[in-house]
Write a structure and sequence with these properties.
This protein is of the alpha+beta class and 598 residues long. It contains ten helices and 28 strands.
């Protein structure tokens, strides 16, 4: 339940845990005391790196052997443990301004240097007993780093309250196991007695009284409302909503009609006119055009910038509020047909996904709609370099989200019901680098892998027999997409420069082309049937499906030419013939067909 997609479910889980903790508070205070003792011991051993490493290795191995390693790759739990059990000795004030921010909890103390993160586990042998208290405690630690802010705040309140009660009741028993000088022991003892005398009101409050989700009160109000009254109110507003939708869909049709005229010229017309260029301070990793608006979303490590690519104006920039050690690896527009009400889903390499609303303008109130741990951090494969993190795919017709990456499965979520549907085992020794669920073949999921394979899965089959076919490249596959029509032609590209066309019906290669070694990025315009490839020679080459090169965008091509550095990412507009490129020097550009062809 800690990874349930619904934050409401996780909040109610915390409410239940709070009631359990209130009944068996003594046992949980004992766990908190043991954690405080280990923290005090580790702090005193900090001056001796050899002793610290020995103590850490023994305690971590002991805890891993019985708890399944609660530590996360980005160091959330262990990093917080070095400051106390997820915080300082002061109680967490739920009304503070920091608690309203959708960022990491205020009781975390982050370090700018990941190498300074301390990993501390309990060395007490009683923690080696697998029981319900340890399970609840481990669940609290996991929820304290939940991507949704209200969930991690509630977990932080429970943990800090237990820690404060433990330190006050025991007088920080870690002073008794100190190996430092007698003078330091005396100081610690005096500080402990002072802490015990100055217990605040929150330390004497029951845990369950401090955790209130208000779900029960909300449910009562909903059932008290008259059904007919609600029906009449909705009926009176339906006319305005219908008129608004008609205008919105009319604007969407205009974009599609304009795009159809460009699609006829695109296979034989060079794309070389730069209509937008801007230098960013960070490396752009993902680019996404809005299908029906003039917005271009640019993601770097932990922030997203929204640009008006026609006027060249920055509309907004906001942070994803993930860990400093995490980076954004996936970005998709949800419900893009409603331009002003569309959502933006952001996936990070720690396995979490956040969905934002009202992100288009800096004057709008940014809102985190929901967030959850799509893939547990412990499921990721340990990779030294080039890890794709977590990749994401959105299917508008079925309102489904697909997740995979440096793991051994593809996970499918239904966003309407907020439930996990299934896990499809990839059967690959490598990681998944991209996902595709085409609207023409909605039951098929296609995954490109780092072992050089492209694997096709049928979600109608049982997970164990869902893989129906696979295609092979000579090296790491960068991307795979389908062409227009019936969706039976798949185009994939690998780092070796091979671009191949596959027929899903006959399950064979029906063509291909070579774009040169050092292929860094590849994207396809499905309707215009164009393939754009960014290679390491600081050049973007664009081909049609016949294999003919229609245009090249090179570095310093002429005195007034574009300055194209090594390409980091490429993206076509879903409808218009516009190509966005992000470069390693921070430059983001948008190209269109040359004016002389129109």
């Amino acid at each position: 339940m800690t990874n349930d997609p619904s934050p409401m479910v996780r909040e109610e889980l915390l409410s239940g845990i709070a009631g359990f903790v209130a009944i068996y508070e003594t046992q949980f205070i004992s766990l908190a005391q043991q954690m405080l003792e280990d923290e005090a011991l580790s702090n005193q051993l900090a001056g001796s790196p050899q002793k610290m490493n020995n103590s850490r290795n023994v305690s971590v191995d002991r805890l891993k052997s019985v708890t399944g390693s609660p530590y996360t790759r980005d160091g959330y739990m262990s990093q917080a443990s070095s400051n106390g059990v997820y915080g300082s000795s002061d109680s967490l004030d739920a009304s503070s301004p920091n608690c309203s921010s959708p960022s990491a909890p205020s009781y975390f103390s982050y370090s700018a240097n990941a190498s300074t993160i301390k990993r501390v586990a309990s060395s007490n042998a009683s923690l080696g007993i697998v029981n319900v208290y340890n399970t609840m405690w481990r669940t609290l630690l996991q929820l304290a780093v939940d991507p949704f802010h209200s969930v991690n705040q509630l977990a932080g309140i429970i943990i800090n309250l237990l820690k404060n009660k433990a330190s006050a009741s025991s007088g920080l028993r870690s002073a008794n196991i100190s190996i430092s000088s007698p003078e330091r022991n005396n100081t610690s003892s005096a500080s402990s007695h002072s802490t015990a005398r100055n217990m605040t009101a929150s330390e004497t409050t029951s845990v369950d009284k401090m955790v209130d989700t208000e779900f029960f009160q909300w449910s009562c109000k909903m059932f008290e409302k008259s059904v007919m009254t609600e029906f009449c109110n909705k009926k009176s507003t339906n006319a305005d909503l219908e008129h608004e939708k008609q205008n919105m869909y009319a604007d969407n049709v205009k974009v599609k009609v304009k795009a159809l005229q460009e699609h006829l010229q695109a296979p034989y017309t060079p794309i070389e006119t730069e209509v937008f260029a801007n230098k960013m301070n960070t490396l752009p990793s993902i680019l996404r055009f809005h299908p029906y608006d003039i917005r271009l979303a640019v993601a770097d490590n932990d922030s997203i910038s929204l640009w008006d690519w026609e006027a060249g104006v920055k509309l907004n920039r906001f942070y994803n509020h993930s860990s400093k050690t995490c980076k954004i690896t996936g970005m998709e527009y949800l419900n893009p047909q409603e331009a002003e009400k569309s959502l933006l889903a952001i996936a990070t390499d720690d396995g979490s996904v956040r969905i934002w609303r009202d992100f288009s303008s800096k004057y709008s109130q940014l809102e985190l709609v929901t967030a959850w741990q799509a893939i547990p951090d412990t499921s990721f494969i340990k990779m030294t370099t080039n890890s794709p993190g977590m990749v994401m795919e959105w299917q508008q017709n079925s309102t489904s989200l697909f997740f995979s990456g440096a793991c051994k499965f593809i996970r499918l979520y239904d966003t309407n019901s907020e439930l996990k549907v299934m896990d499809l085992p990839t059967g690959s020794d490598g990681c998944v680098t991209s996902l595709l669920n085409d609207s023409q073949n909605i039951s098929l999921v296609m995954a490109s892998c780092s072992d050089g394979s492209v694997r096709i899965f049928d979600t109608r089959q049982a997970p164990s027999s869902s893989r129906i076919c696979s295609f092979k490249h000579s090296s790491w596959v960068i991307n795979c997409q389908t062409l227009k029509g019936d969706g039976n032609t798949v185009v994939s590209a690998c780092r070796g420069g091979e671009v191949k066309f596959w027929d899903l019906r006959n399950r064979e290669c029906i063509g291909g082309l070579s774009v040169g070694s050092g292929l860094r990025s590849m994207t396809i315009h499905k309707q215009a049937e164009l393939i754009a490839c960014g290679v390491s020679e600081q050049m973007i080459s664009i081909y049609n499906t016949a294999g003919d090169a229609t245009s090249y965008i090179k570095y310093h091509e002429g005195f007034m030419g574009q300055r194209v550095a090594k390409v980091s990412c490429l993206s076509f507009h879903p409808h218009l013939v516009r190509l966005a490129s992000g470069n390693v020097d921070g430059m983001v550009s948008v190209f269109m067909m040359s004016d002389k062809s129109k």
